[in-house]
Design brief:
The structure is a homodimer.
Chain A: E1 2-4, H1 7-19, E2 24-29, H2 35-47, E3 50-55, H3 75-84, E4 89-91, H4 95-98, E5 105-109, H5 116-120, H6 124-139, E6 143-147, H7 151-163, E7 169-173, H8 193-214, H9 220-231, E8 237-246, E9 259-268, E10 271-280
Parallel strand pairs in A: 1-4, 2-3, 2-6, 3-4, 6-7
Antiparallel strand pairs in A: 8-9, 9-10
Helix pairs in contact in A: 6-7, 8-9
Chain lengths: ~280, ~280
């Protein structure tokens, strides 16, 4: 497995793989790899011949009061994990490699970025889209893999790729959960044992919503209230949002119809955690 | 020479040229080709092995009260011109081919897009950057060629390519002028004989500025006043802006130092015309 820090090296290695007729699969990450990331790598291995994983904690997607400084960095373990799964190339650039001068070019996916996490984290999604575009242009993959846990990010990236005719396919892979139901996240490392216990209420409340909807409930406000009650069982849980939105447009729904994304963001201690389920009412 | 309307065709033809080891040169245009465009094609022929010209009047870079409906369309002549110059492939997509659904993804190059034409034509540059990104992603050229007449556009495109790590080189070619000094533009077609005469005052006033600066004048306000006087000789000329800005940052200069872009935009009849010179005071 190659590990490269420079854009020039990455381009050389990938273009050789391309020239050899290999299909390039790409998994962009911020490191601190867990089974969620590994599931993306496995999906890439199934569909592609040459797998690139990027490890880059991208400063432009963090807000001024967010956790970039303490974001977990486990580079050596990450590389061991990648190697074990048969990754061909790890791209681990420095910040100055990715941003050699002030970045003044931003990609905005309007409307999809306004709700949910876009509301709580202004500037976050333009940082994500912009760094993904940069990485796509550097790695030139045939397929890139993202996780459904970041449901809004997944929709935004797919729309950016479509609108800008980017020459790659985006595949969204299912959420991977701990046995408690807690969605895998690098930020789970911030949780104490007690907080981790309470964090399982996030998925429990999503499952509760599924049951309520299956039983015929259609009013968002009623379902939210029930979810809120369940989350409030955890004294450390501070709800950022509970949203029931159209799964394609991310517009808030008062009454549920069609494919609905039920999405939660909470803070537990210093960790901001998100999770979601998609429910099809059609 | 191939003429293709679909993205799929373009990708197929270009990828064959790439596979044959050819260097792809790309000249994006809105058609109504003139000697300015032809100079770009000639520059592309000198440096590249396979030349693609796109002809697409891009709706997203026109404002609501601008001239998209009457923008000159001379497709057959354009193709003859391209063929005569040895162009390999003309890409002439329909609007629905380029925008099959509402476009909600926009690329903004901040600060560089705020002054000059960005002020007079809100939304123009995000339309230009976005369609250029789309075309680059469709054509995947090694080099793309733009004209210096659109000085602000040239800087913005170069910065977008750098900031987003787009895998191509941008080459800016000199302004081509009519014998009167008038910069070649598809919009010159809008001019009556009398208006065309007056339009030569644009370049005359730029040359006047060059002389004034060469003679030691350094105050922008003084130089602008002299340029304004000269432009006012043409009764049909309505000045949009006369700007003396830093040639790299496009920030207005009160006192001239370093590389200065002297830029003019005027309306004559229904035509909005721009022109510029760069003067190096270092």
């Amino acid at each position: 497995m190659d590990i490269a820090e420079s854009i020039r090296e990455i381009r050389e290695i990938v273009s050789q793989a391309h020239a050899a007729g290999k299909k390039i699969g790409f998994v962009p990450t911020m490191g601190a790899l867990h089974d969620g990331h590994f599931s993306l790598i496995k999906a890439a291995k199934e569909r592609c011949d040459f797998i690139v994983v990027s490890i880059f904690v991208n400063p432009t997607q963090f807000g001024p009061n967010e956790d970039i400084d303490k974001y977990p960095r486990t580079f050596e373990d990450d590389c061991l994990g990648c190697k074990a799964l048969g990754v061909d190339l790890v791209f681990a650039p420095s910040v100055s490699q990715m941003y050699p001068q002030e970045n003044i070019t931003w990609i905005n996916v309007q409307s999809l970025g306004d709700s949910l996490c876009g509301k709580s984290r202004p500037g976050h999604f333009r940082g994500v889209t912009t760094v993904c575009a940069k990485l796509f242009n550097i790695v030139s993959p045939d397929v890139a893999f993202f996780g459904q846990k970041d449901a809004q990010q997944a929709l935004i990236i797919k729309r950016m790729v479509a609108d800008l005719n980017m020459p790659l396919e985006i595949i969204i892979c299912p959420i991977i959960r701990e046995p408690s139901g807690l969605a895998m996240s690098s930020r789970n490392k911030y949780l104490s044992a007690e907080e981790r216990k309470q964090a399982s209420l996030i998925y429990a409340s999503l499952q509760h919503a599924e049951l309520l909807i299956a039983s015929g409930l259609r009013k968002s406000a009623d379902i939210k209230l029930e979810m809120q009650k369940m989350l409030n069982i955890g004294p450390e849980i501070k709800i950022d949002y509970i949203s029931l939105v159209d799964a394609e447009t991310l517009q808030e729904l008062e009454t549920l119809t069609g494919k609905v994304l039920v999405a939660i963001a909470v803070k537990i201690g210093t960790a901001r955690l998100i999770d979601n389920v998609i429910i099809d009412n059609t």
